[in-house]
Amino acid sequence: VEIAEAPMADLPELVNESVKPDVQNKDSKKSNIVINGRIDFEKPACKPEYPRAALRNELTGTTTLAVTISAEGTATQVKVIKSSGHVMLDEAVKKPLLNPACKMQPGTVNGVAKKLVSQVQYVWRLDDDDKEKNNQFVLVQGAVLKTQSNTRPAKINFDALGCKPEYPRASLRNEEHGITKLDVHITETGAIDNVQVLSSSKFEGLDNAVREQLLKGSCIAKPALKDGKSVASNTMVTYLWKLD
After folding, report:
1. For the chain, give me the number of helices (H) and strands (E)?
2. What is the pLDDT of residue 135?
3. What is the domain range of residue 227?
């Protein structure tokens, strides 16, 4: 006797409930159109001034910044994310950006101005006019002496009494070391009345230690000579922080 098998109904498809189907509405399929803000460094209120000490020492480099630009077009925060290699240049470009008078083009999301962070770069470079001006500097914060036969640049002997900075204890513990470059104004009597960090050792504690030591008044430098007479001048010095 032949037994005919009854046809089986299709079994329902098993669904793994732990995996939810990707359900998207019409709006979620649209990606936001984001346009970052822009800064015109040629605007008078936005353009940084080349620091005179940086001009004297012909410092150049590129400062990369993260700038938070409000919907109104002003900077609410400016951070250096990559240094030019010279603290003086980095600080000089930050200053005008934080000035409310510096108006920027705000970023937009789907055509609406929003508070966004934009990454920008500023290139510090000397053209021929800048170099010519640098060579002509005389009596700008004192006499800026170029290499001439009748002049002698000022000097600082860090081994002299009152000149050598103490190694900060925290820096010793953390084994911090490096080279701090400074622009120092020395009066005709050898007194030091202004010190600016040109290039950081990468450790603020070390930079501050040598700067503060020079400004204490206990360090007497050799003043510059011009035509046989002592004159005030600016000079660049370096201090090596080295662990024994």
Report:
1. 5, 12
2. 41
3. 138-241
